[in-house]
Amino acid sequence: MFLFKDNLWKDNLSKLIANLWPCRLQDDDTVRYLIISDIHANLTALEAVLADAPEFDGIWCLGDLVGYGPNPNECVERIQDFDHISLAGNHDWAALGKLDLGSFNTDARDASIWTQTELSPAAREYLGALPTRVEQDDFFMAHASPREPIWEYILDANQAFSNFAYFSTPICLVGHTHIPIVFELDEQQRRCETMVPPFPEPLALGSRRTIINPGSVGQPRDGNPRASYAILDSDAMTWEFHRVAYPVEITQERMRARGLPRRLIGRLEMGR
Prior knowledge:
The protein is of the alpha/beta class. Helix content is 33%, strand content 20%. 40% of the residues are buried.
């Protein structure tokens, strides 16, 4: 047994703990969320995002964990390693047979049929339990839109404006289009303003009602092939868009090995 004559041992213990968990001790009140969407069974891109992201306390996933890509089961398993919220997307429903595949183009349909045959029972159970809408504090979340959470694409300011009537929180988070974008509501002018990243500094939230799309992890479509994600600081109410490169060729090779459509393979390197 060791005896200490003064409080030196307490100081040393505090320093040891601070070295082990510096971020938690520096700011216990800050809560940061990793915001992701449209992973599309691209495990390589998902792992790149997880490795690149600043420290976060939980994940909010806006849907489409599966579809298009070669690793649906692995992506479903990986997100469950974290505290998270996840929503159902149209490709998640397609993989479960909950959507008519006739509404998909040929490549998306063929990829969905392959995903249906590939999903494990555990992945099916997980995807089948996902909600289509979630409200968390000041945030409403849906995969596609608050008006139609599975299918509608919010592509422009007019569509965004009409959707503000379908949620009551200050902020709405959506995915589905695979394009990072921000729509701010100007209530006096009765219109939306559109902002496209990158931004020089974190986006301050709260001054106006806003719809935000973090872009796609697994199949970006804004001409930039790097995986797209965001970090939300719910204490400071700030939002930061991020991009990270990943080895696209690994995902492409896995897709070829599984016989997935060539157009889906090629588009990954173009970000379209």
